[in-house]
Structures are given as structure tokens and as C-alpha cells.
Amino acid sequence: MLYFVFFGGSSVTMPDLVGKSVIVAMENLQQLGLLPKVEEVGSYQMPGVVLGQLPEAGDKVKRGRVVILRVSSGGERYALPDVRGMQYESALSKLEESGFIAGDVLRIYDGNVPPGVVIAQSPAAPARVPPKTRVNVLVSLGPNVGDNNVFPLPNVTGMNVDEAKKVLSEVGLFAKNIEYIDTISTQRGVVMSTKPRDGTQVARGSQVTLIVSSGKAPQKQPSQEVVRVPGAAVSQDVVASPPKPAAKEPTKPEGERTQQEGVKTEKPQPKPADVSGQKVADEQQVETKQAKVRYPVPPLSRPLELVIKATDKRGERTILSKEVKGNEYITLDIPYTEQLVVTIYLGGEFVWEERYF
After folding, report:
1. Does pTM surpass 0.90?
2. DSSP string computed for 284-320
3. Where is this chain compositionally biased, Basic and acidic residues type (predicted)?
4. Of 27, 227, 255, 351, which has the fewest Cβ atoms less than 10 A away?
């Protein structure tokens, strides 16, 4: 290392070198006749940046004195995620998962951004910054609504998604969330309902979820399994009634067979007479149950025919056949013995099947 020695004992004022690059700082010191000595320290600042100096800025020192420069050696930096457009809770989780700390939150009214959505952040992304950096965010409160800005939600059922969004946007509502229901009863992409329901009082700037037809047929599962469609909920409550004795049948000649419920069964032989000489026939007890079927009709863009069929040992029979509207609630109590299969069709399309034992 080359040392410069100055004589004469003249003094100079120490310059402020903090924040400058080590190259510039060393040049400044050498021009003043001072001798720089670099000490690297760990820091999240950019490598090569002067973090401190000794003597400090403004001190009077003699030429030829050694000046210590504490210089950043750099540190680990993480990619800062862009959380603009995210709900604040989701943005907070994203920042914490990435190794950063949530800083200050400023909330303002903004008619173009839904409530709770992050508008801006500081530091801005994309960038690579030290871990545990505090990130401040600006969050929307939505439009500055008053009592006169509360109104019934318009009915957009039957519109396509773009039309529905346009109608809702014109009255200051947002429809970013879409839920699809598998059905071929309503054309693909057509709005079947909304959350909240049309007519509900909403404030300007509120979020509306569109329930839209996917245009796909629901998948029918094997009869041993329960098949459900979104919005359908069925209660299977089986109530056993007291057993009823079967009517006594007269004695038939041996070998005679009878046809009962589609199954050939051999008639029981008469029992020997008791001591009084009276003949006693077997009493057959049949357990009767009731299947409580509860079916909420899903949202529909138009009325459809609902058919409910029941199949047991007596064969298949139609329990209900009528035209229904969306969101109707169907309640049926179907008596049966042993086991029962209930199948529901809506608009000629299979939607649900379940077994009762």
C-alpha cells in the first residue's frame, strides 16, 4: 500500500462521506492528504456504500491522519411481491410469507377500486430489498357512499356475464367473482342468480358474485353412491312405523304357488291343529318406513319440469311431476318397505339419486 506523508502540520475539516461509494470517499480523503482505511461490515445496504466514518464529519484533523471508513459488504435481498389489486388480508399474508413486515396502512375512498383492495405499496414492486423490510400499503374504502347511495341490487338473471357486469358497473357495483354450476338446462355463460339475491339492498361499491351456467352436464354416479349437484341438499330421515300383522290366508293345497310383487314364492304349509282343533296360519310382519326427501331447487333462469321417481320391490313409480321455479323447496314423505331408490330429474336432466334402507 502506498502511503502519503504530508508535513507542515496543517489541519483540514473532515468531509461527510456517509452514503457515498467507497471509491468516491477514498478519492476525497486522498485529495485532502488523509489516509483511508476500509473496514467492511455486514449490512443490507448496497455493497460498497459508506455507512460510517471516524473521525466524524466536521472534525478538524491533521493531514496524514488515518481515517476509518465503515463500508457495507452487502447482504441477502428478497424479491418484493407486488400486492396491488389484492384484498388487504391476502396482501398481508403474501408479504409475511415472503419475509417482510406489514407497515402502515392508509385507507382512502376510491370509486374505481373495490373496498379492501390494495391500491399502492411502498417500497414499490418489483424490487429486491432486504428481508424484514416494512412495507406500507394504501387500501381502498370504495366510493364515499351515503344513505342515498343504498339501493336494490338489479336483476341480471338471464344475461351473459359481460352484460351483467356492465349493468352492475353502471350503478357502481363490482362483479369480479364468478361461480359456475354444471347444468345444461341453462345456456353456457348465462347468469342464473347472484349473491346477494336481486332486490337486496346494497351500497354503491359493493361486490356481487355471479352464479353462471357452465353448460356441462352433471356427472351421474353409480347408484350405490349419492350424487349431488351444487345447491342441492337432501335430508334422509327414515322413520320406522310399528309392524303390522299380515292378514291370515286360507290353507292352500300343497305345492300351490302365488305371484306376489313380481316374485314367485311358495305358500307356507298349514300348521298342525292345536289341542282345540283350530288351525293357525303364520303371521307375516312387514316393517313400513318413510323416506323424508328434501330437495331445494337450484337457481334457474326459467321454470323447468321436476320429476321425482321412486323404485322399490313393487317397481318404479312417479311420485312428483310438476313445473318448478328456481329456489323452490320440495318436501316429500315416501312410504316404503325394505329399501327404496329415489331419483330426481330437472328439465329432463338427471340431477340426484339416493338409496334409503
Report:
1. no
2. PEE-EEEEEEEEEPPP-SS-EEEEEEEEETTEEEEEE
3. 246-269
4. 255
